Amino acid sequence: MGSADLPAMKTNPKFIFFTDFDGTITTQDSNDYMTDNIGYGRQKRRQGNIDTLEGKITFRDSFKGMMDSVNKPYNECIDFLVQNIKLDPYFNEFFKWSLKNNVPVVVLSSGMEPIIKAILKNLIGPDYDKMQVVGNNVKARPGKSINEEGGWELDFHDDSGFGHDKSLTLRPYAQLPQDQRPTMFYAGDGVSDLSAAKETDLLFAKKGHDLVTYCVKEDVPFTIFEDWRSILEKVKEIAAGKTTVQDAAKQGYELYKAGEAGVKAD
Hints:
alpha/beta
C-alpha cells in the first residue's frame, strides 16, 4: 500500500499524529457551539451526548439531529464559526514543531470539511493545507441551495453508526509491516472519538471530557492532556526515547483513580 492510499506515509515518518478537531485543536466544539446558539440548544444536545455514551442512540443519529436543528444558510454558519471559534493556545507551536520534525498531522473529524478548513485557514494561515482533513461533508437539500435558509444537510463520510468511523482511516496505517509502520498518536475529547480510541499506540484524552469516561469504562489505555503544550512535551519525550508509549498509556488511569482526570472516579 503506497503513499497514494496512505497520504501521511509520503515522507516515511516515524510518527504520525491523528487528531480530532472540535474541542481538541479548538477550545470549543464548533458543532456544539452552533447547536447551542443557533440550533435546538445545549440541554437537548448534551442529552444526546449522554445517550450516545450509554449506547441508547448512535453518534450518527445524535449528530444528525443537532445539525438538522440549525437552519441558517451554510455560508452564514461558516462565517459565524470563523468569528467565534478559537484555537488551543499551544496548537500552533505543536504544528510548527511537527512540520520541522516530519510528524504529519491528520485531522479526523465528525464535523464538516469545509467548516474545518475555513477555521484552520483563519487560525493557522497558509500552512493549514499541510494538514490532511478527513471528515463529513455537506449537501443541498432537494430543490434548495446550501446557502439558503434550511437549505443544507449532512453528507456523511460512511455508512457507520458514527457517520464518520475514524478507525477506517487509522487501521490501514496500523496494519503496515512492522518495519514500515510509524508510531501512531491520537488526541480527542468526546463521543465522536470512540471509534478511534482503540486503534492507536497512544491516545491523548482531554481532561474532564467524555472520552476519559469511555476509556475507563472500556479499559482503553490513555494519557491525559489539558492543552497542546502537554501533548508536545509528551511527544518530544517519546521521539527522543526518554519515555515509551506504553509507559505514557498507563498514566491516564492512574490520574483517574487519583481524582486528577477531571471526571468523577468510581
